[in-house]
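Course assignment 3, question 2. Fill in each field.
Student: A.L.
Task: Predict the tertiary structure for the chain below.
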Amino acid sequence: MTVPGGRRGGAVTIADLRAAARRRLPRMVFDFVDGGAEDELTRDDNEAAFRRLTFRPRVLVDVSERPQAVTVLGRELATPVVLGPTGLMRMVRHEGELAAAAAAERFGTVSVQSSGSSVSLEDVAASVTSPQWFQLYPWGDRRTVENLIGRARDSGYEAMVVTVDVPVVGAREKDLRNGLTVPPEVSPRTGWDLVRHPAWLAGLLSHPRPTYANFVGLMPDARGTSGLAAHTNGLLNPATTWRDLEWMIRRFDGPVLLKGVMTADDARLAVEAGCQGVAVSNHGGRQADSVPAALDALPEVVAEVGHLADVLLDGGVRRGGDVVKALALGAKACLVGRPWVYGLAAGGTPGVERVLEILRDEIDRTLALIGRPGVASLDETALSRDFASGVVSLLTT
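Answer field:
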C-alpha cells in the first residue's frame, strides 16, 4: 500500500493517516497506538492546547525564503521535527522501527529508537548511514542499563534520550479491556477483531513475531515473548533518582536529553546533572492522567533553562502549525510519536515519509502566511497578543 500525497484520494493531513491506520489495524492495536491513560484527559488536552493558541500574522514581509533547519544536541536537522521513541512497532507493521530511521534519514532529521523497540538497536543502526538517537528507560537492573548504553554507543548512536516519567506503567484501560497481549494472540476474545483485518494479520504471521528485540538473550529467565514483556515491565524502577541519571550520563559519554520534564524545577536539575537538552513531555498522556498539556508546561521550562539547554516539545503535535507554535514559545524542535505510527500503519516506510512531508510543508506554508521568514524568526510575538503578554510576564518574573 502506498500513501500518495497531494493527489485526490491520497493522505493530505495527519488526520487522514490516522483514519487509514484505524481502518487497517485491529481495534486492540489501534487503541494501543492511539489511546491514553485512564480517562485520557491529558491525551486529549495535549492536542487541545494547540487549538487554544492563535497566530498574530504580519503582512508585507519578504517571505520568499523560509528556512526551517535547526540545530539540536549539536546535530543540524533539515526540519524541526524528530520522530519520537515508540516501542513494539512491528505490532503495527512488519518494518517496525526501521521505517522511522529510513524516513528520518531521507528528510534530513533523526529518529529516536526506543529501548523497547521490536527491532534491535544494532539492526536499526545498520539500516541507515546517518546516526540516530537512542532512548533509554532507567530500568532497575544496572547491568541491563549498562548493556544497552554500551551497545548504543558501540552502534554509533550519537545522543541518548532518557525517559523518566514511567516509574510504573500507566493505566491504559483500553488495552486492559481489549485483552492486549505482546504479540497479539488469536483467542476467543480477540479472534474476530484480528481476522477482520486480513492484511494486518498476514503481515503479522509472515514475519518474526513482535517482541522486545533489545532484550532477547539478555533475560534468560523470561519465557517466551509474553514472558519477556512481563519481565521487561517488571524492571521499571520507581526508586530511580538524579544520582542514577548522572551515572547513565557518565556511561554514555555523549549528548543526553531528559524526556518527561514538566516543571522548571526538574528542568534545572536536569541541566545541573549534565543533560544538554530536555523534552517537555507527559508521555503523550499515556502515563499520568490529569496533568497539564505539554504545550502549557513549555513556557516555564524555556524560561528556566532555554538559555542553557535545548528544549524540545513532545505531545499533541498534529499539524505543522503546531510545530510553529511550539517554536514560537521557545522549543528548538518537536518530537512526534503517534503521527509517524499512523503513517507506518497506513503505508509502511512511505507512510512515515508522508508524515514528515506533510509536517514540513505545513510548517513552510504557515511561516509564509504569518509573515515569518524562517523558523529562526519565531518568538512569542508570532502568537496572539493576549497569550504573548502572558508568556512575556512569565519570562520576566
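Instructor remarks: The domain at 14-396 is CATH 3.20.20.70 (TIM Barrel). The chain is about 45% helix and 10% strand.
Grade: pending
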